[in-house]
Amino acid sequence: MTTPGRGLHGRVLDTLGPEITGGEYPPGSVLRTDELAQRFDVSRSVMREAVRVLESMHLVESRRRVGVTVRAECEWNVYDPQVIRWRLAGADRARQLRSLTVLRSAIEPVAAGLAARHATPEQCAELTDRALGMVAHSRGHKLEGYLLHDVAFHRVILEASGNEMFARLGDVVAEVLAGRTHHDVMFEDPDPAAVTLHVRVAEAVRARDAARAEELTREITVGALQELDILAP
């Protein structure tokens, strides 16, 4: 489904992006914009706009007298939320989820420790609210509601760290959590131990216990990796 507000070039991207990240166009493949415009029944200007977006993600590059060339995977902007979404929708989902979860395990515990030092009273209150929201949606197959609070909880942790680099990873973590939910790499009801850990992280941040907040968050990320061993081996 095309994302609302993205127009015709969004429709092109919703098909062409996953095809590129899914390997249907291997690195070095040349995309002919005229042929693509005919395929998608759009104007050349619409096709050029779609290519510009793909270029901004470093998925392709335009070469004079050659055309639009698919770049090597090592050159892609793998932190772009849309690229993450496309890759999670493909056959390589398990590897992508593991890679992103390992990234979380390296970043989020440190961010939680910093949050315990720097979080504002408002951020502490929101962490508690979001953790309780996770508890409220952790039974009865309410995964979409749970996801809403889970994403918000981790965004607050990253933002409350006071580190702008960590804060910018909020969209990345959101895509990981959403991908697990939307591609059924989650139990029908979240692990009760993981839910409880989120509550305890909120308590540790509010108590300004940096070591405890870091330790508990590390337990969350370790648990997420263990879930992948079961659900996406």
Structure summarized in a few sentences:
With 233 residues, the chain is mainly α. It contains 11 helices and 3 strands, in the order αβααββαααααααα.
Describe what this molecule looks like in 3D.
This protein is mainly α and about 230 residues long. About 70% of the residues lie in helices and about 5% in strands. It has a three-stranded antiparallel β-sheet. A hairpin with a 3-residue loop joins strand 2 and strand 3. Helix 4 runs parallel beside helix 9, helix 6 packs antiparallel against helix 7 and helix 10 packs antiparallel against helix 11. The longest helix is centred in the middle third of the chain and has 26 residues. It is elongated and about 60 Å long.
Output the radius of gyration.
Answer: 20 Å
Distance between the termini: 28 Å
| Average pLDDT for all residues | 93
Largest sheet features = 3 strands, antiparallel
Report the strand count. 3
Proportion of beta-strand residues: under 5%
Order of helices and strands: HEHHEEHHHHHHHH
Helix content: 55-70%
What are the main properties of this structure?
single chain, 233 residues, mainly alpha, 3 strands, elongated
How is this fold's topology laid out?
Layout lengths: L6 H15 L8 E2 L1 H8 L3 H13 L3 E4 L3 E4 L10 H8 L4 H26 L2 H16 L6 H18 L3 H4 L2 H13 L9 H15 L3 H22 L2
Antiparallel strand pairs: 1-3, 2-3
